[in-house]
Amino acid sequence: MLRTLCRRSGAILQQTQRSAPRLWVTPAQQRWASSLPMNTVVLFVPQQEAWVVERMGRYHRILEPGLNFLIPLLDRVRYVQSLKEIVIDVPEQSAVSLDNVTLQIDGVLYLRILDPFKASYGVEDPEYAVTQLAQTTMRSELGKLTLDKVFRERESLNSNIVHSINQASDEWGIRCLRYEIKDIHVPPRVKESMQMQVEAERKKRATVLESEGMREAAINVAEGRKQAQILASEGEKAEQINQAAGEAQAVLAKAEAKAKAIRLLSAALAENNGNAAASLSVAEQYVSAFSNLAKQTNTVLLPSNTGDISGMVTQAMTIYSTLAKTASPSSAAPPPPEKKDDLPDYLASPEEQRTQ
């Protein structure tokens, strides 16, 4: 009787082991955590593994890592789930972007089983289900983006795919940790157009930079010219101010010298033989003026007695004497102080000459 039971139990276990589905198997990778163990009453479960036990065909419990005991013939290990992080290669697939460009994209999916019960009874093949979900989600997310945004927003695209996968795989007890796009292949013609676009963009930037450089250079030259003109005008202004100040000082110096000369001349005329000295001075000035005739202009006016120098001197002294006699001391008003120096000696009255 015992032999018959042992034979039947061994046959049942062998048949169960043969008919048990192999989970987490792909053509590229085979991730067998452990083969389905036989019920040997005493079982040792490895770390980071979960063994799903059925009793008489119905879910009973999940064996924890370590020592466990099962009832022979009634209990059997139905599923073995690995609790480690699993890496799945998502095969290359075609997707159409928002601007109708066909792309070939493949990726890598990182996931972990959080609930062995849901992973065992919620879906028949968790890996196949998650892979198909990742592919469909990738197609739908790529259809929302243009070709340029696919390359610029890969991070946001990966996060959107992970969020969509987690929403659907929550009932399977699987958590998608991250999704990474490995390669994006574009058609050759599109690649050529992209390269041409990049070259055109670079040429545009080079042209813009060159124009900006020329503009800045022109601005700098104009600014330099402006500063130069301002400095030149300020220098010319300072020069004119200095020249005007110099001319004013020269005029003042000439006026003071002339006034001093007039004072000295009037003092000389008031002394003895002053008339003789005045006659000598007038004669000298006449001779000097006569010698300069016809040097500057062609028009010359000559008196009738050009050679009578004594007569011209006598006439000048007679005019001087007449003016001196007609100006009386009582009726003549005193001239302003500032105009005394401007009168020549031969026009001053005797009283003024004595006062000076």
From TrEMBL:
GO terms for cellular component: mitochondrial inner membrane. The keyword Mitochondrion applies. Keywords: Mitochondrion. Residues 40-198 form the Band domain. Mitochondrial protein that probably regulates the biogenesis and the activity of mitochondria. Stimulates cardiolipin biosynthesis, binds cardiolipin-enriched membranes where it recruits and stabilizes some proteins including prohibitin and may therefore act in the organization of functional microdomains in mitochondrial membranes. Through regulation of the mitochondrial function may play a role into several biological processes including cell migration, cell proliferation, T-cell activation, calcium homeostasis and cellular response to stress. Belongs to the band 7/mec-2 family. This is Stomatin-like protein 2, mitochondrial.
